[in-house]
TrEMBL record:
Domain Response regulatory: 13-122
GO molecular function: DNA binding
Highest classification ranks of the organism: Bacteria, Bacillati, Actinomycetota, Actinomycetes, Cryptosporangiales
Sequence positions bearing 4-aspartylphosphate: D59
Matches recorded under PANTHER family: DNA-BINDING TRANSCRIPTIONAL ACTIVATOR DEVR_DOSR (PTHR44688:SF16)
Pfam families per record: GerE
Keyword set includes Transcription regulation: yes
Record-given protein name: Two component transcriptional regulator, LuxR family
Keywords from the named record: DNA-binding, Phosphoprotein, Transcription, Transcription regulation
SMART domains: REC
């Protein structure tokens, strides 16, 4: 089921998926220091029905396989994801976020970063760890977020004065998923230091970056700014 963006939640339910019990125990010890956090599920296998919580903390290396390709389906189910991994290669960090993860926390970044990332994800806010920042700095396209094809398509049709319901019908997905793609794109822009809180701001950013050509949009609902 979909969730609306949250303000400051009284409680945050969290699932933890890792194939090392000692890591799960350590994460639970860290989370216990945040009174708002309630543990929903732990385990070493990704099970959307069992793991669905406000936030899912997941390792990328699960029982000998890389789980990046699992992220899109989990995110599309409405799950907010914080990746918690010992693998911090630039391509992997960016791929995890492109796939739909709300945040990426390296296992050596410690309790504070993990807790901040969990709370930020639960409230649909961006949180950039040093690992993520380093990956973005090393990325030639640092100033332009890496939008997925689904995110770009949802934005394009939304910009063409279509309602989210109409966009959903055209894409063959739910209105909640359309809203999620738009929120995800907004978070990605905030992550690179270019927030766009309104539809007009987001459209202008997308045109500036060449992600969308002015001619692609039939009606522009923003005023040019000097």
């Amino acid at each position: 089921m979909g969730r609306e963006p949250m303000g400051t939640p009284d409680t945050i339910s969290v699932s933890v998926i890792d194939d090392h019990p000692v890591v799960i125990e350590g994460v639970l010890a860290w989370l216990s220091q945040e009174p708002r956090v309630l543990i929903h599920h732990t385990g070493d296998e990704l099970d959307i029905d069992r793991a669905l919580a406000d936030v899912l903390i997941m390792d990328l290396n699960l029982n000998g396989r890389l789980a990046v390709d699992d992220i899109p389906a989990i995110a599309d189910a409405g799950q907010r994801i914080v990746v918690f991994s010992q693998f911090t290669e630039q391509d992997l960090v960016l791929s995890a976020q492109d796939a739909g993860a709300s945040a990426f926390v390296a296992k050596n970044e410690g309790r504070a970063h993990l807790l901040h990332a969990v709370v930020a994800a639960a409230t649909d806010r961006p949180y950039v760890t040093p690992t993520t920042a380093g990956s973005l700095v090393g990325n030639n396209g640092i100033d332009a977020p890496r939008l997925s094809e689904q995110e770009r398509t949802a934005l394009l049709w939304w910009f063409q004065s279509m309602s989210k319901t109409s966009v959903a019908r055209r894409m063959g997905i739910s209105p909640h998923t359309v809203d999620m793609y738009i929120r995800r794109a907004r978070i990605k822009y905030a992550d690179v230091g270019r927030p766009c809180p309104t539809k007009a701001d987001m459209l202008m950013r997308a045109v500036e970056d060449g992600l969308i050509r002015p001619g692609d949009v039939t009606e522009l609902h923003f005023r040019a700014r000097s």
